[in-house]
């Protein structure tokens, strides 16, 4: 495994996904990547490209060099016919060690007719090894992923190019999601995170936290600093009553630049009674600003996402903390800046 191919990415945690030409032609790429994402594996850095002849040669190098294969003479032609000049989609998968085996299991048997229901090839496959042999071509089985970290390193260099810098600029593409105590108490955390993921955002690194007072104070620093706007309420006490010692769920959301306003629009107005239908607070909210003011407390509005990149950096430090610095490596493998940087 040569570091000269690509350096600085932990391929124990990353696999390369190749959606083959037949997946593109049949319009199945979104559904395939969605199945992988639904399995709890972050999918990022999707890229469409036209395959050059050398690229599938490298990906299939073990088959091409296998002296035990009887069809070795024909295999290069089969590969060229299937890939050269054809459109494919590649993406990166990020997960725990063992992610390669997990995705291989999710993809299913090489022969779609032998792949079990619930696997990608079992659910979407429409070809067979027998038909491919009869027609002297490769079997059309939709998708390939790296076998192991060494394979991921090689395939990353094949499709993305050695030394390519992945497109992450600090927290421009990363937001923090806070499912508040009322979301936890009402059993709405899964529904909230699923709604965010359905917007095309990768949700990863979910973690349950029991809130310490300082976390609520840092998170709501603007309320504390502007406490003069609320002369009838004790803001520190409101924060402690609402958060201290209570369970919340936090997660990271990854997307394109512009993710912060996208998520803020998705969650809706802070007063659930003014949040539009189709937003999270509009659909699930059961409180109002009027009731909160009357009771001299914070409004229960289920969820928070970071306002902007600077807020995302601060939110990460508040809820995940220095002990989780490993999470500052995004699903793309590029380190984000520490929570104290550029402050």
From TrEMBL:
Molecular function terms, GO-annotated: nucleoside diphosphate kinase activity
One GO BP: GTP biosynthetic process
Pfam families, sorted: NDK (PF00334)
Q: What is its EC number?
A: 2.7.4.6
Alphabetical list of InterPro entries matching this protein = NDK-like_dom, NDK-like_dom_sf, Nucleoside_diP_kinase
Q: Is Kinase among the key words of this record?
A: yes
Broad enzyme group:
transferase
Q: Where is the Nucleoside diphosphate kinase-like domain?
A: 12-167, 172-324
* Keywords per UniProt: Kinase, Nucleotide metabolism, Transferase
Under the heading SMART domains, the entry gives: NDK (SM00562)
Give the family, as the similarity comment puts it: Belongs to the NDK family.
Name of the protein in question? nucleoside-diphosphate kinase
